[in-house]
Amino acid sequence: MLFTISSLTILLHLTSTTVKAANFAVTNNCPYTVWAAASPGGGRQLNQGGTWSFDVDPGTAGARIWARTNCQFDGSGNGRCETGDCGRLECQGYGSPPNTLAEYALNQFNNLDFFDISLVDGFNVPLEFSPTSGGCSRGIRCTADINGQCPNELRAPGGCNNPCTVFKTDEYCCTSGNCSPTPFSRFFKERCPDAYSYPKDDQTSTFTCPGGTNYKVVFCP
C-alpha cells in the first residue's frame, strides 16, 4: 500500500492520538498525612495539600490508586501502614484492605477509559475520582462517614472492612460469579451510590470517558 506525504502525516497524527498517556493528579486534602499508592505508579508521602502527578501508558488495565494511613518506613523504603499496606513506600502491587480504591482501565473497548470507585476492599479515606480533560465531566465521589458508621462486624483499625475480607464466603466474595446484594453491601451503597459495594455491582458503578482523558484523585475532597 502506497502512502502520500499527507496521508502519512494523518496516519502519524492518528497514531499519536490513540497512544497518548493519561495523566493522574493525586491530591491529599485530608487534615493528616497519607501515603498515596498507585499500581502502576508506586507511592509517595503526601502531607496535607500535597499533590503527586504521574503518567500512565495507554492500554493499561487493572490499575488502581489508593491512600495509605499511619505508615512508617525505613531509609530503604520498607515499612508498614495501618490501612492499604503494600510493605513498601513505592508499591509494586496492590494494597491490603481496608482501602478505598480508584480503579481504572485505559483505552479499552471502543477506545474508552473505564473508571470506578470500589469499596470491595472496604473503606479507609473519602475519595473523589474525576476526569479533568477531553470534554468528559462526570466525576464520582465517596465522602460519607463510613468509618464512623461502620457495622461492628466490619470495623478495622483505621477503616471499615468489606464483608468478603471478614467472612470469606461466596455470598460476600462472589467466588462462584453469581451473587446478589447483601445487607452489608447495601450499607456501603446507601452511603456511596456511585461506588462498587460488592463484586457484581457493575451497572451503577462503572463510568467511561474517551481514551486520552486526564484524571484527578482527591483524598478527603
Automatic annotation (TrEMBL):
Residues 1-21 form the signal peptide. Disulfide bonds join 30-220, 71-81, 86-91, 142-192, 150-160, 164-173, 174-179. It comes from Turnera subulata. Belongs to the thaumatin family. PROSITE patterns: THAUMATIN_2. Keywords: Disulfide bond, Signal. SUPFAM superfamilies: Osmotin, thaumatin-like protein (SSF49870). The lineage of its organism: Eukaryota, Viridiplantae, Streptophyta, Embryophyta, Tracheophyta. It holds the Pfam family Thaumatin. Gene3D superfamilies: Thaumatin. This is Thaumatin-like protein.
